[in-house]
Amino acid sequence: MRLPSQVIDAVWKIPEGAETLFVGPVFSDGSSMHNDTLFSCRCTWGLVEVSAWELPAVPVKHVTGHLPVMLQDINGAELYAALFWLRHLDPITIVPHVLHTDSQWVASGFDNIAHMLDPWTPHRGLWEAVKTAMDELPLQLSVSVRKVRAHATILSTGHNPKLAWERLGNNLADNLAKQRCRHEWFEPALKARYDKSMKLSMVLLCYHARLLSWAIKRDFLPPRPASVGRAGPRVLLMPVHAVAVDSTGTGRCVRCLRLQGECRAEQNGGCIGKRVRDHQLHYLGDGIFCRVCGAYSFRRTLKLVGSCSGRPTGAVKYRLRAMQRGLHPVERRWLGAPRCIEDVALDFAVFL
Fold first, then answer.
1. How confident is the model at residue 268 (pLDDT cuts 50, 70, 90)?
2. I need a labelling partner for 255 at 20 to 30 A (CA). Which of 152, 179, 243, 327 fits?
């Protein structure tokens, strides 16, 4: 599969002796393959010029190509087709140049190009190129873009010759774009790369299936975490230790919160049970603490292993106040502002 940023030369089909310039009415359309995600999507476009402004009409010349930008979608393909049309207009013709597209986004953008140059507009670079191309056109050229129905049926257009003519042109452009997609898909080099990717995927899927079966038999898969309520975030229930690395680089168990060196079943009797009251955890430097009961862990883990005991009293209350102000509970040195841990299993990078 080609990279989306690779520029591919357009493929023309014109009568003998004709030029690669558009003179009459033109229709455009786009097509895509692997459009499940933006990462795999690849788009093509097609432009076709017809012989007359009414029926009967036949295609005179056409051109197809790829969308040579990183963001691959149908709107981008339709827009690049319009840009290609602008750059290949016959500069000496007096007849009006009209592009017919089934993309409302492209048609509306040509009516207000200044609005499409906003920083948050998709394909802003293509719109800037369209603006430049229109500014460079000769003054005598009349250029416009019209919206036509997409995938219209004979029943919906048979009563109106104008709509029937637009349906013919749109179908021609749509078929061209789809043919370019199919042609690129069945190229030998692309097909060979696809076959190799499928073989590699099947090997990885078989490995994943074996690993999943092994984890299910040993009850290693945690259930879906419960929603966050008044009791605070829920931690995944795991029968054994699941060592993870938090944002500070400290290795801990996502269930009992012991440090990586403390997670030894022969010393601690395994991970904590399933029925415990969860702590409401916050980061503080390279340690963590519960904002409710004041339990904390910097070099070792004691009270955080059990259930949350609620509001503290005595010296623990003053240590909790110190940690809430960003101070070490014992040394009283500044560690930075505390940060809430929304979900331990999601906040840590889990390595089972």
1. very low
2. 327
